[in-house]
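Hello Y.,

Per our agreement to keep a running log of every chain we model this quarter, I'm adding this entry. I've kept the format consistent with earlier entries: sequence first, then predicted structure.
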Amino acid sequence: MSVYTKNLQAGDLVMYSRLFCQSIGALAGDIPFRVGTVVKEPEVFGSTTLVTVAWHDQPAFETANVLRSNLILKSDRHKEPA
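Predicted structure for the entry above:
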């Protein structure tokens, strides 16, 4: 199974994927190193999956909905292709 398609569950630590960061030109700064916790089970809307993430660098762990395709498990970060 690809590191980009593993199922996420509430409580998982996630980061933005290297592919996403490269696609938006975020090669340095905070975004590539941002860590968050999945707050609830991902919601599927047709072919789109949204994940609610509480980012650790936000006050009071504010949440945001993020496309599943833009996230990777923190523990799998080293498995991404360069």
